[in-house]
Design goal:
This protein has 2 domains: 150 residues, NAD(P)-binding Rossmann-like Domain (Rossmann fold, 3-Layer(aba) Sandwich); 168 residues, Alpha-Beta Complex (L-2-Hydroxyisocaproate Dehydrogenase, Chain A, domain 2), CATH 3.90.110. The chain is built from 9 helices and 14 strands. The strands form 3 sheets. Strands 3-2-1-4-5-6-12-13-14 form a 9-stranded mixed sheet. It has a 3-stranded antiparallel sheet with strand order 7-10-11. A two-stranded antiparallel sheet has the order 8-9. Strand 5, helix 5 and strand 6 form a beta-alpha-beta unit. Helix 1 crosses helix 8, helix 4 runs parallel beside helix 5 and helix 6 packs across helix 7. The structure holds nicotinamide-adenine-dinucleotide and (2S)-2-hydroxybutanedioic acid (LMR). Nicotinamide-adenine-dinucleotide binds next to helix 1.
Length: 324
């Protein structure tokens, strides 16, 4: 069977240390699909990269046909079917994700151009490196020959955090929680929406107290990344790798019936959100194509929060306009 070519950037970093092994074990595409890993790292990380590849070989994964290691994005992205753009500086304690724009934005301009030259025309590109939404916009604008719908920024980690927290609060299995939505930026201004969510088929807000939703749940999801950094001393890694796998599985195989995923995609003006920013919407996926969930009622409470996070994304876009 023809192997699937999967490019991962930042391959010697902490997210990749979980992600690569799970992809090679078949957790992304299933047990019937051989894969080739095409790994991009900077020269300075060559030794760590060699050690990681030794470990990949030492697992003797039956599905892993080949591992390519390079510091040239054109080589890493050549004929890639699926691309994980992870490689970027993470924030430390006390920083906001947008403080990383200056350090990371250039990476996504270079890699957008390389994707434009080298990746398959229908490659699916997931942007994980922060600030993920604006980095995704930079990659899109630098890859004019690829369809913008083939790029998405990762807000699946926020989505999974919200599912987990709501399920724990309601004391139900996570599989009983559906239709959570993360709107906007993967940042402190994101809006984790329970207004449309369901628990065991009932409206979530009939199962939780409004005060808990507004004063506990929303701030906890918004600040979860900072909390992990405060406690671990480093940013989330295993949960981020898991979210990257989940996002890509939804994109390739579809979202479960009656449920939604959250993805940062180029706004088409849905729900009155400005076009030309990468904004997280609730989506469903069928046959490899996402659709923004349409027809949701947006009350004043939701609108206010959706606008705050939109405004932040417009400001970030202004800050990187030289790269667009
Ligand atoms: P890390 O520092 O452990 O690894 C990053 C790796 O990227 C390093 O090995 C570095 O050498 C490499 N790198 C830097 N520039 C590169 C380039 N131009 N090409 C290829 N590789 C390059 O960081 P990490 O913990 O793995 O996190 C990676 C990024 O993901 C960070 O920006 C982090 O903030 C972000 N992140 C996003 C989410 C999300 O939900 N969207 C979640 C967690 C982390
Ligand atoms: C997260 O949400 O855990 C990541 O974006 C890392 C961070 O900087 O918070």
């Amino acid at each position: 069977m023809k192997p699937v070519r999967i490019a991962v950037t930042g391959a010697a970093g902490q997210i990749s240390y979980s992600l690569l092994f799970r992809i090679a074990a078949g957790e992304l595409l299933g047990p019937g699909k051989p894969v080739i890993l095409q790994l991009l790292e900077i020269k300075e990380m060559a030794e760590v990269m060699t050690g990681t590849v030794m470990e990949l070989h030492d697992c003797a994964f039956p599905l892993l046909q080949d591992v390519v290691v390079t510091d040239d994005p054109d080589v890493a992205f050549r004929d890639a079917d699926l691309v994980f753009l992870v490689g970027a500086k993470p924030r430390g304690p006390g920083m906001a994700r947008k403080d990383l724009l200056a350090a990371n934005a250039g990476i996504f301009a270079t890699q957008g151009k390389a994707l434009n030259h080298s990746a398959k025309r229908d490659a699916k590109v997931l942007i994980v490196g922060n600030p993920a939404n604006s980095n995704a916009l930079i990659a899109i604008r630098n890859a004019p020959d690829l369809e913008s719908r083939n790029f998405a920024a990762m807000t699946c980690l926020d989505h999974n955090r919200a599912v987990g927290m709501l399920a724990r609060h309601c004391q139900v299995p996570v599989t009983d929680v559906q239709r959570i939505a993360i709107w906007g930026n993967h940042s402190l201004t994101q809006f984790p929406d329970l207004v449309h969510a369901r628990v065991q088929g009932e409206p979530a807000l009939e199962r939780v107290d409004w005060d808990w939703y507004v004063k506990t749940f929303i701030p906890a999801i918004e600040q979860r990344g900072s909390e992990v950094i405060r406690l671990r001393g480093r940013s989330s890694a295993a949960s981020a790798a898991h979210a990257a796998l989940t996002h890509m599985r939804h994109w390739v195989f579809g979202t479960p019936p009656d449920d939604w995923a959250s993805m940062g995609v180029l706004s088409d003006g849905s729900y009155g959100i400005s076009e030309g920013i990468v904004y997280s919407f609730p989506v469903t996926v069928e046959e490899g194509r996402w659709q923004i969930v349409s027809g949701l009622e947006i009350d004043d409470f939701c609108r206010e929060r959706m606008t705050v996070t939109e405004k932040e994304l417009l400001e970030e876009r202004e800050a990187v306009k030289a790269l667009l």
